[in-house]
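Technical annex B. To support the medicinal chemistry partners, we prepared a structural model of the target in complex with iron/sulfur cluster, based solely on the information shown next.
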Amino acid sequence: MSSDALGDPSADQPGVGRFLLHVCCAPDASVPWPSLMAEGFDVCGFFYGDNIHPEEEWRRRIGAVRALSRILGASAAEGDYRPSRWFAEASALAGEPEGGKRCALCFRRQLDATAEYAARNGFRYAGTTLTISPHKDPALINVIGEEACRRLGVEWVPRVWRKGGGFALSVRRSREWGLYRQNYCGCVYSFRDGGEKGQDGDG
Ligand code: SF4
């Protein structure tokens, strides 16, 4: 699906246009990405990985995102991997449990990076796969995404992908498609804490 086929992304065509989808991990994207394409959006996946530890794991996850983009026939982009930027802020919240203040900060960094990439590259819409997780707060995620996008003139598309069995479908689909599934959320702290919330591959 190309942006040419969809016309001018700045034109007033609700539901149609260039869409930058923040991809937290390939398994979690296996439902939102094709769903948005089916709705008529021209979707590019965007992976931000400064929170991912160690680098070898970042490589595995980015490889899975690229594999998914090939399966879907869609484009994908990624931010530079510079975990020191993430640690500079998140290390002060090292003792926070998963789902606490450190995760809110982490969502903000991921969605700020998404909004900035979208604005720089002419995307009309942005959204995230994070809300497919049964362990993350979708209302908080959508507030953060909306704030990040509004200041840059990008339209945030709030979705709660876990609704209607979305998470279970993503687990089945990512297995069928042979996508790498991690067993912890992503950062060194979630790795340290045993990834008990992430054993289903929720990134
Ligand atoms: S547990 Fe996940 S969401 Fe929370 S700070 Fe770590 S990587 Fe980010």
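Notes passed to the chemistry partners:
The two ends are 27 Å apart (CA to CA).
The chain is about 45% helix and 10% strand.
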